[in-house]
Specification:
mainly alpha, binds benzoyl coenzyme A, two-stranded antiparallel sheet, 13 helices, 2% strand, globular, Ferritin
Length: 314
């Protein structure tokens, strides 16, 4: 016990001094568990997040837009893979993460349970969903766990391109015909609140925040990041003559931030608990793709074993 409390003190001192924690360093079991949860859920979000956009790959309006969208979706796959690797350094195997996802034990971001009904939704995802993700992930570059922090640095570079490709779609639609501008407005109306909910519950209701902030797993709170996202996004929409679906959205000269309406937490928790418009289809699609790919994994492992055997004989 004495040993543990001394180790805990030394661990906290390292965190306070902004020294990164690396996989082989001593860490409290709760730190390890909390990271396994957050990083693997982050990885699942990247992978499940490919589905709403993948839905439009065959219907992109030009070859240029199709190539850009394909590159973006492939980036998301890459983000998922870095993050699974980072989570695996904490001693849990990839198969286990996927089992938790398929069994409904692990979460992924609520926002990916909404449908993409029009091409404008692809713009809204890049502009708003990737825009929100950047705010969160720039902050996470400073997380105390080395592998997670380094993954975030690479991911953020790609997210900036994602945000711009989405905003470009919205700019083109907003400057197009009346019908096209209306498509952009509809997409903003449908994606605004889900993007705000991505940041999670208010600080007072956030189960993990206190400990995560103390251990610098998170560097800023859910509400701080949400407010930053709102403040930086409003002028991007107003500049295009779009309106946000919130009558209480107003600049507050005292706080120097935008005020906004109460968030519909019933909707948020309903989606988080698996009852959103797309939860069942998203999980079923992932589970089927995973099962259909079993032969590829088996062949890759068999090939690896054969190579090992060959090198032993040689
Ligand atoms: N959706 O104590 P809290 C992308 C859960 S993908 C679902 O505040 P924490 C992209 C939370 O897990 C990148 N669940 O938690 C990809 C916890 O439940 P558990 C997306 C949510 O972890 C493709 C409970 O609520 N970004 O950019 O301290 C195409 C209490 O919450 C949500 C990330 O994944 C939610 N929105 O803080 C386009 C960010 N919010 O686990 C784009 C990484 C909360 O105890 N994650 N919950 O069962 C984080 O930064 C943090 O985990 C959160 C939540 C800020 C989300």
């Amino acid at each position: 016990m004495m040993e543990d409390s001394k180790k805990l003190e030394e661990f906290q001192a390292k965190i306070d001094a902004d020294v990164k924690i690396e996989p082989k360093d001593w860490m409290p079991e709760k730190y390890r568990q909390n990271l396994i949860r957050q990083i693997s859920q982050h990885a699942h979000s990247e992978i499940i997040g490919m589905q709403p956009e993948g839905n439009w790959l065959t219907r992109a309006p030009s070859l240029r837009s199709k190539k850009i969208l394909m590159a973006k979706i492939q980036d998301e796959a890459g983000h998922g893979l870095y993050l699974y690797c980072a989570a695996e350094t904490l001693g849990v195997k990839r198969e286990q993460f996927l089992k938790w996802l398929h069994d409904g034990v692990a979460k992924y971001s609520s926002v990916f349970n909404y449908p993409t009904l029009s091409w404008a939704d692809i713009g809204a995802i890049g502009w708003l969903v990737d825009g929100a993700a950047i705010v969160n992930q720039v902050s996470l570059q400073g997380t105390s766990y080395g592998p997670y922090s380094r993954a975030m640095v690479k991911i953020c570079k790609e997210e900036s391109f994602h945000q711009r490709q989405g905003y470009e779609i919205i700019v083109n639609l907003a400057n197009g015909t009346k019908e096209q501008k209306q498509m952009a407005q509809d997409a903003l109306d449908r994606w605004w609140w889900p993007s705000i909910m991505m940041f999670g519950p208010h600080d007072a209701d956030s189960a993990h925040s206190n400990q995560s902030l103390k251990w610098k797993i998170k560097r800023e709170s859910n509400d701080e990041l949400r407010q930053r996202y709102i403040d930086k996004t409003i002028h991007q929409g107003e500049h295009l003559g779009l309106t946000f679906p919130d009558e209480n959205l107003k600049w507050n000269d005292k706080t120097k931030h935008y005020d906004y309406s109460p968030i519909d937490w019933d909707e948020f928790w309903n989606v988080v608990k698996g009852n959103g418009p797309g939860n069942k289809a998203r999980l079923a699609h992932h589970t089927k793709a995973h099962n259909d790919g079993a032969w590829v994994r088996e062949a890759a492992i068999a090939f690896q074993e054969k190579q090992k055997l060959k090198s032993k004989i040689a």
